[in-house]
Amino acid sequence: MNSSELLAALKQQAEMINATMREDLTTIESPLLADIINHAIFQGGKRVRPLLTMMAATLIGPPPADTPRLAISFEYLHAASLLHDDVIDHADLRRGKETANKIWGISPVILAGDFLHARAMSLAGAVGGRAGMEIIGQATAAMVEAEFLQMQIAEEIIPDDANYFRVLMGKTAALISAACEAGVVHAGGNAEQRRALRVYGTNLGLAFQIVDDLLDYLGDPARTGKAVGNDFQEGKMTLPLINTLARADEKDRDLLLALLKGSAAERQKQVASAHGLINKYQGFAVARQKAQDLMDEALSGLKIFSDGPAKDTLIGLAHYVLNRDK
């Protein structure tokens, strides 16, 4: 399955997910709450998490009729986390548009995020039963813990890659893994199938973020929508930089650390220098190989499932994540 076929298949499924969410959200009575949630959910996005729930269920057989309602709980939780992230970060823009907190203020947006959390839990319990509640509850807890860990290590001059991956596990991979596992459980999958999709989702999420880190330095701004080296300008310790600091000699390591301690304006002028040092010490190559290794492990687990469109889509999605340019 090539990327065009994959995106076409996902788009068709995403329209079904959108329709399910629109129907579910008709119960909202507050016009303000409805406006904020519509802004948060229907301003773009590929619906990857609910689509993974649907595809994971389909690996077992024809999915139960109520699977889409379970699937949208993961989109709600994702949207809630973005609303809260933007409040925490005092962000004014997301995907090139004004954030909800910029438009409506902090208090209503926090409450809207809380509503989406509650609705996600309600759906997970009503449709997925005890197992669904446990899966989404554990993912939510992991996401919050990761935020606290990120704050804890923010002051570390050189965070190690173990902490980097611990944060990614909670902030990105936990929800994707939960979306996959919930689909298998809901369709009656066994423990081995459940474990395979949990590993697939975890590694897909980790690899996605590593590729994101690489695109920040190596991507085309016209495709990514971000300036080259934006993470470095903000002083973010992503995997290419962590790899480089671990491998560099003392002189180059001290140079990078001096740049990181400078102002954002000073770092902006030194993006090319940082890029050169990361390349010199194979920081990009090592990160790329890590993403590949994670995806190889993810795909190996899918061998236990019969061939079919759902399996082809999951394999295609893995290749797309590794090779994406935006």
How are the secondary structure elements laid out?
Elements: H1 3-24, H2 31-41, H3 48-60, H4 67-89, E1 93-94, E2 97-98, H5 100-104, H6 106-153, H7 161-186, H8 191-218, H9 221-224, H10 230-233, H11 239-247, H12 250-261, H13 264-269, H14 271-280, H15 283-300, H16 309-323
Antiparallel strand pairs: 1-2
Helix pairs in contact: 1-4, 1-16, 2-6, 3-4, 3-7, 3-16, 4-6, 4-7, 6-7, 7-8, 8-15, 8-16, 11-12, 11-14, 11-15, 15-16
Please characterize this protein's 3D structure:
There is one protein chain. With 326 residues, this protein is an all-alpha fold. It folds into two domains: 1-156, Farnesyl Diphosphate Synthase (Orthogonal Bundle); 190-326, Farnesyl Diphosphate Synthase. Helices cover 78% and strands 1% of the residues. Strands 1-2 form a two-stranded antiparallel sheet. Helix 8 runs antiparallel to helix 15 (283-300) and helix 11 (239-247) crosses helix 15 (283-300). It is globular and about 60 Å long. The mean pLDDT is 94.
Would you tell me which CATH topology of the largest domain applies? Farnesyl Diphosphate Synthase
Estimated helix fraction: over 70%
Measured on Cα atoms, how large is the radius of gyration?
Answer: 20 Å
Query: Structural class, please?
Result: mainly alpha
Low-confidence stretches: none
Mean model confidence by pLDDT: 94
Distance from N terminus to C terminus (CA atoms, Å) equals 19 Å
Strand order of the largest sheet: 1-2
Query: What top-tier CATH class of the largest domain fits best?
Result: Mainly Alpha
Helix-strand string: HHHHEEHHHHHHHHHHHH
